[in-house]
Structures are given as C-alpha cells and as structure tokens.
Amino acid sequence: MTPACRKCHRINPPVAAYCYFDGVSLAGQAEAAAAAPPGTHTFPMPFTFPSGRACHNYNELALACVDDWSAALAVLHKGHLERFLGGVGRVDLAEAAPRQLQRIPATAWFRFRRAVETTPTILAVVADRPLAKSCATLAVKLPPRRAVFTGRAPFLLLRDAV
Fold first, then answer.
1. Is 39:57 a contact under the CB 8 Å cutoff?
2. 39/77 Cα distance (integer angstroms)
3. What's the pTM?
4. CA-to-CA distance for 64 and 43, rounded, in angstroms?
5. pLDDT tens-digit map of 21-73
6. Pairwise CA distance, residues 81 & 47, whole Å
7. Is pLDDT of 18 > 90?
8. First to last CA, the chain
9. How far apart are CA 85 and CA 65, in angstroms?
10. Is residue 91 within 8 Å of residue 85, measured between CB atoms?
11. How distant, in Å, are the alpha carbons of 58, 74, 91 from that of 40?
C-alpha cells in the first residue's frame, strides 16, 4: 500500500520511511493502512459529485458511479475525476482503460470476431465511444439505468437494472 503523508496528503512509494515532499516521518502509517481492506482506505480529501454526494474511499466512489452513471461520465469527460485521482496519486485509474482500448488495432478486432463467431461465446465491449469500428457485428446504445446488486461486498452480483 502506498502511504499518504499525514501533513501534505501526498502519496509516497511503499518503501518510503519519510515523505518525499516534506520529510515527515511515515512510521506506522503503512502498517495501519495495510490492515484495512483494499477500497476502504480513506482519501486525503473526499471526491464530491455535482449532486453533492461525497466519496471518502474507492468503494464509495465506485458505488456513486454506479448509482449515477451520467454524472460519473460527466465528471470523467470534464477531467474532474482524472485531476482528483492524480491528486491522490492514481491518475492511472482515470486514463488507463480508454487509452489501452484505443491502442487495439482494427486487425485485432477482426481476429477477435473470427475467433468467436463459430462458438457460443459473446465478445462484448462496453465503452462510451466506438472501439471496434467497422468490425462490430452489432452496436447497441443503452440508456443509463441504475444497477441492482445482491450480496455483500466484495462479492456483489448484478441482478437487474432499473
């Protein structure tokens, strides 16, 4: 786990004994952070959606995105989420998936299609922009809906969307 400085709230490398930015001792912080389950580590400052909903950790942020998908897309497109995640040392989370999917060449999409077309397998790519382009057999535009999950975290099962 990457420790955050208790004074400046910046993220430091896991091996750091002192904050790389202001020299404050990080003693004991890594052990305390490691004891908490992933996703429950508190952000140095909460991420607040335009609706006023505040998210204090990754679990709350993920649930808020599921609950209000259109607002989540809006803050992502405006760069608010990327700036926030960069502030807590995780800009990679905001930009990695779209960047990696954009790098897949068109020939690979055709190979994916050929690999599954004679099998009972479905290859579904869910994104906010076209990625498979002319290779897509079917493009479906879905209206945003609220997902309904059952179970207890971290073992949630998607049941329906309303």
1. yes
2. 23
3. 0.44
4. 15
5. 777 888 765 555 555 666 777 888 899 999 999 999 888 988 898 888 888 88
6. 8
7. no
8. 36
9. 14
10. yes
11. 6, 24, 18
